[in-house]
């Protein structure tokens, strides 16, 4: 996984960060995202869907929606949202390059 590790040399607002507690926060899976603007801030809600076991075509046809539980909500300032977008773009490009290289290996 390609990650950009923030460190004390990359200050926010001129004040270095001492990142603490990330290992104590449970990791969760999200397969749906809802984005909304609240005034100037960006609000992102991450959801996890529950997929039912469908045994027949009739059950599939009767399915009107999937339950999706909100796992976490995050509110970002415009500047943090912009940095997040740039970070995601860079990491997605790097990951795509790694996967492409692996495809070309014998």
Characterization of this structure:
The structure is a single chain. The protein is an alpha+beta fold and 106 residues long. The protein contains two helices and three strands, in the order ββαβα. It has helices at 57-62, 78-104, and strands spanning 32-38, 41-49, 68-76. The chain has a three-stranded antiparallel β-sheet. A hairpin with a 2-residue loop joins β1 and β2. The longest helix is centred in the C-terminal third of the chain and has 27 residues, at 78-104.
Summarize this structure briefly.
It is built from two helices and three strands. The chain has 106 residues and is an alpha+beta fold.
Output the strand order for the largest sheet.
Answer: 1-2-3
Q: What's the number of extended β-strand segments?
A: 3
Distance between the termini: 22 Å
The helix tally amounts to 2
Rg over CA atoms:
19 Å
**Mean pLDDT, all residues:** 85
Strand content: 15-25%
Write down the secondary-structure element order. EEHEH
Given as residue ranges, the uncertain stretches (5+ residues, pLDDT < 50) are none
Task: Determine the fraction of residues in helical runs and give it as a percent range.
Answer: 25-40%
Q: Structural class from helices and strands? A: alpha+beta
Which term fits the overall shape?
A: extended
Q: Main beta sheet, described? A: 3 strands, antiparallel
């Amino acid at each position: 996984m390609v990650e950009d590790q923030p460190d004390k040399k990359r200050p926010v607002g001129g004040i270095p960060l001492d990142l603490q507690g990330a290992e104590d926060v449970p990791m969760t899976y999200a397969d749906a995202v809802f984005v909304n603007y609240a005034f100037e801030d960006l609000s992102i809600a991450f959801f996890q869907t529950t997929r039912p076991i469908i045994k027949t075509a009739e059950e599939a046809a009767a399915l009107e929606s999937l339950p999706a539980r909100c796992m976490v909500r995050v509110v970002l300032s415009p500047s943090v949202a912009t940095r997040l977008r740039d970070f995601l773009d860079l990491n997605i490009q790097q990951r795509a390059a790694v996967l492409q290289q692996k495809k070309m290996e014998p």
